[in-house]
Amino acid sequence: MPQPHIDVVGIGNAIVDVFAQADDDFLVKHAMNKGSMALIDETRAEAIYEAMGPAMEISGGSAANTTAGLASFGGRVAFIGKVKNDTLGHTFMHDIRAIGVGFDIAPASDGPSTARSYILVTPDGQRTMNTFLGAAQDLHPNDIDPDKIASAAITYLEGYLWDPKRAKEAFLKAAAAAHAAKRTVALTLSDSFCVDRWRDEFLNLMRNGTVDIVFANEAELKSLYQTADFDAAVVAVKKDIKLAVLTRSEKGCLVVSRNGTEAVRAFPIDKLVDTTGAGDLFAAGFLYGLARGKDHVSAARLGCLAAAEVIQHIGARPQTPLKALAAENGLTV
Amino acid sequence: MPQPHIDVVGIGNAIVDVFAQADDDFLVKHAMNKGSMALIDETRAEAIYEAMGPAMEISGGSAANTTAGLASFGGRVAFIGKVKNDTLGHTFMHDIRAIGVGFDIAPASDGPSTARSYILVTPDGQRTMNTFLGAAQDLHPNDIDPDKIASAAITYLEGYLWDPKRAKEAFLKAAAAAHAAKRTVALTLSDSFCVDRWRDEFLNLMRNGTVDIVFANEAELKSLYQTADFDAAVVAVKKDIKLAVLTRSEKGCLVVSRNGTEAVRAFPIDKLVDTTGAGDLFAAGFLYGLARGKDHVSAARLGCLAAAEVIQHIGARPQTPLKALAAENGLTV
Question: Which residues of A touch B59 (CB under 8 A)?
Fold first, then answer.
């Protein structure tokens, strides 16, 4: 097999985030599960937007954020996702290319509008997401170019892709193309409610070797194994996959492989502003380290650094170049 | 005359800001005057957007930001400006209403798209603005309802309105309606290059009593009187208008009236992030104080507080409720 040309190709929902501040009462009044992601239809999207406070629009999407983080570290990276040829779609395309991510999927000329997620940030920095998938759900297996997948050391997939039917097929096509080229496939479980919707299928993907690496936070891992006991879930995941990277917010992360479990501490922060993108940016740092031949602990440190940057401002993509930030903090990249 | 029903009506260009970080070299390469506002056409708008980094979209517009700040203090306030019935126009309308500003000008159904300003923020926190006026330049005298103007204690106008021809007529109609109802008219000079374009007309507005209060920063005041000597400009402005409120960045402000000149110190900040909106939010605090019967120094303190809030994050509108912030800092509102 030839050497990979790029570090990572990310595949996910192409979404523009619409951020507003809200208090806990707002979440209760609008029946939202704090800290989670809910899929909404256009009618509910309009109702939430009408009710929410003044907003700011920043490109998002889980795997898209991860590729943006990788580019900010200096990685060679591409993103695959679907927008419509509308104002928000142009915003998404501009922003992902401007940070240095390759993106060449043609926008849809008709059908639903570009996806948006209404993200309510509470005073504790937690975010609660309400996503209208729109054009993103029309990601099609035809959008997956096996040669592009083969050119990447790692193909990174978001669990959210399991919601739209054809995106799921695109996911499986990409994973097969990656393995045919002897590359690595990574999956993030995305959200505990997403895990609840697709638990058995996600477990199958891990157990049958469709994915080689899984990223999960505590809530997602507990949901996967339907247990309140994190330690028991760690024991379980160790049997199901070669490498599990488990994020634990301010407690840092665990890297679980057949060789053992290693803990890495979270990177210190001044002030928590908005947790949106924490998991996505952790994955960016970890994958960057991995693609560049670092050991797991060094890769996890890069992940913790990137997560710390993104939770100190509103928006799920880095505002400080991560390559420079890593150098300032004595982390070699 | 009946008592005013609202504190302030602001009239200005309705703009959505598109923020990106940039270095000084970017400004030089694209022939931008650091710290100023340039009017651009659609072709240049597209070229700048293409070249600039990943962005975030936040509603802006000078007088619009001021009304947003007034609403955040708890003021009763309305805004008059023109958007198109397009995605950015809906964003603008949502955001200004969501913060509590009355806005009922119908969006244009055809003509140019909603105005946007490409704002490059350099590492020193300075902002350089490139504005495509679009639909905003179609603000028409018919959009001015004399009864609404008469209902406001203060009518606040931005100097930028002097650029589009019909907006200028709308400005004069509003000022006449305010004075017919024995209300106060305030003007911000907006930008030193704007002053350079309209120096004689701005001086006439002040000298013939069309405006009662003028807001200016140091650069604008020096441009107005074509002098490098700030003190000489202060002497000059004192003869030309009843009340001049002069902002001086980290040096605070001067309130210049026929009774004398009072200095108020800037409010301390932790970190300068983005100066966009500093003058707009200063005006919000000052006008709120004035409309609620405070003395000039107390009003200026509210202005300094609001300016300090807005320069510590990206975006020209407050992210922290100013009423609560004032209370925390022992300022009565």
Answer: 54
